[in-house]
Amino acid sequence: MMLPLIYIVCLWLQFHATLSAVVDSTASDKDIPTNTVENLTLQDVILELSNLQERLRAIEEAQEILRSKVDNLLNDEHITTNQKRANRETHEDLRTIPNSQNILGEDCTPGTIGCPVSVRPYSVGGSCILCPAGPRGYPGPPGPPGRDGRDGRDSLAVVTSTENTGLPHQPPRPGYHGVPSNTSGSVYVRWGHNECPSHSTLIYAGSAAGAHYNAQGNGANQLCLPDDPDYNDPVAGVGASRAFLYSIEYQIDDHPTLASRSWLDVACAVCKAPSRFGQLMIPGKHGCPSAEWTLEYSGYLMAERNHVNHRRSMYICVDQEMQSVERTHGSANTRGLLDLVEGRCTTSGGGLRCGPYIDGYEITCAVCTQ
What is the pTM of this model? Predict the structure, then answer.
């Protein structure tokens, strides 16, 4: 409100200065020496009166212009004040009912640029809510540098060249051999074989190992041991407080086609199926559930035999070829053992469900990946 008042005062002072100049000019023009008044003709008097009327008309026009400017300024200030008050009242109402009316136009489609919603915009605390998106602003300043990654966990690659990247040069980590390729996949053990299928990659080959067949304690699972072990500060001699690990042999002395494998150490291979991340061992099947799965190998389900002198072990799927480690024909006295697994069922309902499973039949198995 102060700015228009100051402007009005300035206009008023300017008007007075202009009026004074005109009056002074008129007065100076009228300061005619008295000795020449009687010399004026009628025509001279009429011309002088006409000049005075033009000056008076100019003064009246200047006064009217000044009055109009003052009125406009007062009206604008009044309208602005009323409009602000009306906007505040309207926005206060819209805070409580931002509902159904769409004032963005009939051609406005909700969800598009310039028409994001089906409700009309409203204001809260001077900020427009649900208003159409404005023009894109200028990019902000660069943010602070990020934290260092943890042991390479947060990064798969190190930038070793700044060509066309604009990134600072970083030396490679020790032991880094380039960007790793996408060769991840499922890892499995092929029991009873020293090679992997053609569609899988061999990680290492070795022999099966586990606990002694009748020893208490130790582990219950079978391991695929590599042929070239590493040691850390070994202590010579047999310790009393230790778990023991033995080679595992086939014990199949009553099977017409597999009896020749008895007392031979079980071969094994650790394989990786590239780009296949799911791995499944299916007992009772020699194939995979569907064409979406890849059959890695099939064979027989095997474990420690059911006997009072034998301890429990894991069930594993052994390749049907049942390959063995060369020159390992031995004795069960210092070995773990693998025997074929048979299904047991009775008509009374004990054991497995009879019908699909036949009492005394060896259980097959398959290892599949996807």
Answer: 0.50
